Amino acid sequence: MKPIFSSHATYQDFVMTRLQxxxxxxxxxxxxNKDWPTIKKLWITDLSLITNFLSNExxxxxxLPRDPSSMMRSYLLLILTNPTMSITKWVDxxxxxxxxxxxxGFEPGNTPGIGTFYDFFKRLWGSKSKNRTHKRKSxxxxxxxxxKGKNGQKAPTASPGRVKRLVxxxxxxxxxxxxxxxxRLFDFFHSQILTVSARLGLLGxxxxxxxxxxxxPLVTAAQIRSKPTCxxxxxxxxxxxHPRIYSQPDINTxxxxxxxxxxxxxHLYMINASDSSYDLPLYPRLHLASNHDSVSFxxxxxxxxxxxxxxxxxxxxxxxxHDAEAIxxxxxxxxxxxxxxxxxxxxKRIETGSDIELSPAGTPICPIGLQMKPNGYxxxxxRQKWRCPLACxxxxxxxxxxxxxxxxxxxxxxxxxxxxxxxxxxxxTDKWKCMYKRRTSIERSNKREKVDYHLExxxxxxxMMWYIRIYGIMTCQYIDAWYSHQHDELCFLERKIFPATA
Length: 502
What we know:
Layout: H1 8-23, H2 35-43, H3 50-53, H4 68-81, H5 87-96, H6 98-104, H7 114-123, E1 136-137, H8 139-143, H9 162-170, H10 183-200, E2 209-221, E3 226-228, E4 244-246, E5 252-256, E6 261-273, E7 281-288, H11 293-307, E8 313-318, H12 325-333, E9 337-340, E10 350-351, E11 357-358, E12 364-365, E13 373-378, E14 383-387, E15 391-392, E16 395-396, E17 410-413, H13 430-436, H14 440-452, H15 463-485, H16 493-497
Parallel strand pairs: 2-8, 8-9
Antiparallel strand pairs: 1-4, 2-6, 3-4, 5-6, 6-7, 10-11, 11-12, 13-14, 14-17, 15-16
Helix pairs in contact: 1-6, 2-15, 4-6, 4-15, 5-6, 9-11, 9-12, 10-15
């Protein structure tokens, strides 16, 4: 039957009553100081609306199900306290520790089993299949390794021009939202987590939100496991071309440029709020491990821009792996400003048809070989102005001046001529450097997920469970931020629950 809605105030009353009963002066159990941060984090986390959110996923008839808000709260409690623990061991922990059962919203001694948790996870996933692709695949499609990156660099894209072709394919479809199995997770995360954080001001200025993006390896298996669909091996036939059944069909082999080794798993691309003081994530996307950052960004950005509704994106901060003209075109189409580090592919200067040349970084070079100085941006004509490097005020100290003007030689560059070399905010300015420094927020966010919350400790074999784990960890990052933001207001909680011992 349908679950019964229970408000967050009802949950708080339940927690207060049960803690007083089991941990009060008349109880035999004791709370220590390190228990209170966890109690406070769940005290302020309202998950009650997930019951209405998943109501249609339950049948009309049958026994009364477990409260979905309590199931979600229990899973978040697992990540907050024991992120490396499996669901099987967590079920035993709920039975053993009354505090965990109470904070989840369950009566001590009456906690859910393993199957109940996995039934709940299936309702969070918008597909009958736990993976996005079919398990039956050809052998070569899973075992082919990408190229290695040179000198610690990321592996190149699989084929030249792939980024440009993908952008050209995506631009006409920007308004055509395609439903994804993970949309149910994101819709809940967007409405109940992001919205609350935006109201508290934890994401920055949502009217002109700045975001950053980056990819990171997600190791899920030591090797790619599969079993044959034929009997060729029993008949003595080696290296047959028949398809095989893979336990993890959505993964393949990628190159980890940081550790300089191959790995099996996903390429996790994250988009976060770069101006957030807590480095909070906004949107995760799992790709094949062999994907390049630029390819993963295009897919992730199109999906994110179709789903994010809390404000407009002003600037997008990306590293040099995203430095492609097609990506500038995609971002400009979204009416955002790209702040991308330049990937200097060549050391040759670029000719302009005059005596002025351009450096590989897009800086004009005067006839005597000096880099010209930026001299402001003309908003009316949308162009960057450059001035003679030896001109100072109305004097020109050049021995061989190329202009008779006392002000010195000037040159203009237009973003429309080459948005990659001539961005709206020149890379040489302090303004651009100050904005680009915030790109490191995405690296700190990824560190929180992979190191602090042990993202790769999950022993899952489906994209469904990996997405649920990722969104659970992201939610815990927000809960930590809420707790830090409201820390002074929560000092009363111990006295409220145990007034006699205050």
